[in-house]
Amino acid sequence: MSASAAVHGQATKLISWNLLHRDGAKVADVADLIAREQPDALLMQEATADFESLPDLAGGAVSRTPLPGRRHGLAIWTPKPTARPAETFELPKGAIVNRICQVADLGPFAVANVHLSHGQRLNRLQLQFISQHLPPRAAIMGDFNLVGPVLLSGFRDVGMRRHTHRASGLLRLRLDRCLIRDMVCTEALVLSRGTSDHHPILVRLEPPSEVRQKKPRGGVA
Q: Is the overall model pTM greater than 0.85, yes or no?
């Protein structure tokens, strides 16, 4: 998050994008997205080691952690280094892929970057686990691999009710989401998919005390 946003109480602009690690978005594609949207933080899933070079094109800083035993994993880009390095911890394990969560302190709140398991009971259990490791004011954002309502106590699912992924090029699913606790969402968008099989999602978040009768944009729920 930029220092000016933290000081003056401006909205924090977050983008999350599952990059599709084999044939998806490249470093230059993500740098172009940053240049267009100027986010305060960009959360990436399926990010390979190539994305550690993102600051060469976009400036800022990247924190990346691969999934256990995998060449890809989670990464968070910010325009400047955050006050503390992103924290990473393992989630309740699935049968095939071990999942992790990456948490960045953005100042007014913390954001958890996730790429959850496909099992619909397991990914909800992982969300409950994550919620217990976050401060009271927080967001969880990323690829949830979740179908249907989240139903996570204390959190609200915000954003556009539009598909973000087309499975096998056919089945449209809303897998990429943002949950918030003690925050207000004032804008939510689904962006152009580009070369990935997922659309990036964008939200603007503010603490409740900063919102002054603003009308939400983009179909915020």
A: yes
